[in-house]
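re the bet — no i am not wrong, look at it urself. input seq straight from the record:
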Amino acid sequence: MNPPSETPPAEGRRPHLLLRITLVMAATLLVWEVMAWTGSLLPEGPQAGLRHWMNALTVFVLAVPMVWLARRHLDRRPWSGLLLTGPRRGWAPFLVGAASWLVPGLLGLAVALAPGWVGIVANRPPAETAATMAALVVLVLLFEAVPEELVFRGYLQRNLHTVMPGWLAVLSQAVLFTVFGLALWIPDAGWGVVPERLPLFLGMGVVLGCIRLITRDVWACVGFHLAFQTAAQSLLNGHLFTVEGDRGLLMAAVFLGPFVFGVLVTALLTRGEGSWGGRVPDPA
């Protein structure tokens, strides 16, 4: 009679990591394709309009269960292993992530505004502007911050970190994030969008991956992502505000600063270092 195996039966049936990553990447792209199709059924509307809500709800309703199913049936590991704490405990890392963008971002904005190099003019009455920005916060959470962070800094980076050093897991998920972003942009905008978008997606993936490594919590990445996307969608598309003066200076002061100093702010706020050189276990 053979001795009982020390390896749990579920572990033996676990697909290879490369297959799991491929399946999750394909499912993620499919979710965004479904979103594009459902959104096309509605006419173009204003910012925070019906089509925007449809897109956000479609992505959220499909992406979050997809990651849950992958974690349960592909990884065969508990949900808590993705380093996504519950909402009650998640507020602290969430605020750290948001502050990691807001502190250098707002300082850069003050530097640009104080000498009069840049001006920002509201295009709508104050009450309407406030209501639209509140709606944008919810939409960014549903559409970008939670789904993308759960997939890339949650599922993918967590799994990659079990087989490679932390720094390499950060770079690897950033490359996957860049592939995902370009795959969404190139079909509509053409290959000419690559020089602009590639460094943006890669830089954002690296910064968010570092924040996730330092804090060991995906909610910190959600906070940073939320602050960035809300500011970008408020200031840069011309619906809520008009930028007067040197737009390039605004981009450098407000949006480049958080990507340069955001990880440092995270480290100072948490006094965390992260596991850069070693692999991390993912126990059943």
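see?? Residues 78-270 form one domain. told u. also The chain is about 70% helix and 5% strand. so pay up
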